[in-house]
Amino acid sequence: MLSLLLALISIAAGHASEPRASTLQPDAAAFAFDKTMRVDYFHTGGPRAGETLSLDRVVNDGAWPGSRTQFVDATNLGPYRFEARDAASGALLYSRGFASVYGEWETTAEARTVHRTFHESVRFPWPLRPVRVVMQKRQTANNEFAEIWAAEIDPASRFVNAGALPPRGAVWSVFDSGPAERKVDLLLISEGYTTAELPKFHRDARRLVDALFAQEPFRSRRGDFNVRALDLPSPASGVNRPNAGVFRRTPLSAEYNIFDSERYVLTLDNRALRDAAASAPYEFLEILVNERTYGGGGIFNDHATASVDSAFAEYVFVHEFGHHFAALADEYYTSDVAYETGAAIKKEPWEPNVTALLDPASLKWRDLVTPGTPLPTPWPKEKFEEQSRSFQARRREIRKRNAPEEEMDAHFRRQLAADEQLLKSGPYATAVGAFEGASYEARGLYRPQADCIMFTRDRVGFCAVCRRAIARIVDLYSK
Fold first, then answer.
1. Pairing between strand 225-231 and 184-191?
2. Cα separation values, 22 from 18, 76, 321, Å
3. Is domain 2-153 given the CATH code 2.60.40.3250 in the classification?
4. Helices 381-400 and 405-423: crossing angle, nearest 10°?
5. Where are the domains of the chain?
6. Segment 229-271, tens digit of pLDDT
7. Among 170, 185, 250, 413, which one has the highest count of C-beta atoms within 10 angstroms of its own C-beta?
8. What angle, rounded to 10 degrees, do the helices at 313-326 and 464-478 form?
């Protein structure tokens, strides 16, 4: 093991990051596009050891599906960023910002008392020369990235597995708009569908994709996407729901109750997810969970999930894809969450649709603010919070007694009707401004509009700021 590590990597930690990369894109001649390099690593943390990363393996993840021109990410999104640099010259070859399950777990109370390890991956075009893969983390003090780990990787090393992985299931096209390298490539994967239920997966996939591309700006940019799906049958119908006492073993190990939140669905088995996804060209992943219980999840540049048979499945699919695709923050703040909240001093969030409004004159969406709109922007906040407390108490009671999902659906419909009526009232109901209450915080964080699909289940679509953030990511992956 020691000789393997010495032959493959060199580790460094704690170095400050270089200034943000120029938008000048590297030469495509640095890569071989018939393969994708996937670097798997372990991400560990806890109250005594601190945050550590360690290499797992380096493998071929199939032909590179991404852009042949957009290698450097200038969006400045994500709590983490990785860079692939030429080992000899230090030249930047590729970079992307991202979030992770570890990064979310780090904000829970459990992280202060328990040590845990999560498996993660980064992917980039197969380099022709040795590269230094640098992992960076956004620093709380100044919001800038600093290096926390690095590994030097020689693509010609015998410890780098360049072999192709056979497909794990049948891949089919939901719709195709052109070559993978010139389009955003979305892959949907079945989870909790038996072989006999795969026709249902096909119907669910088409229905949910239609819901996504009914929303702007996805509707206008549909021609910039390819959507494929992977049939990955499970031995039994449904997925693991530990909070309900329902236990399943599925190919991707997707489950409810992540961070002890009854509605939060993710997979913690990153290796299984990535090995399955290697069956098709992809840049973004969504797991369709064959369940009736309301739930889903989404992590920027990692993966998203949605239960397909709840009455609000289309909303969940679109909302969670907003997290995964464009780094959109949750704008709601009255629902129960696993994360620790209530910090006295609010830092400016990195997400594009939430602000601490430390300086209204330099609001990051200032150019979109409706003329004459005050900052902060008045809205019926107290009435909304009172109304929401009542609905949340009822929701907890329904879940506690494990009531039929139809009862929860009816409850959500009543809440939707009440929220829509309240939020469309007032002089600034459709304005872009800065509305206090966002990202799980009732005070000190602000969202761009009174209502948005990132705030409620209401039928309002993405707000103007979220639409612009989405379009920016489409541009990054489709040119």
1. parallel
2. 11, 12, 28
3. yes
4. 180
5. 2-153, 170-298, 368-472
6. 999 999 999 999 999 999 999 999 999 999 999 899 999 999 9
7. 250
8. 60
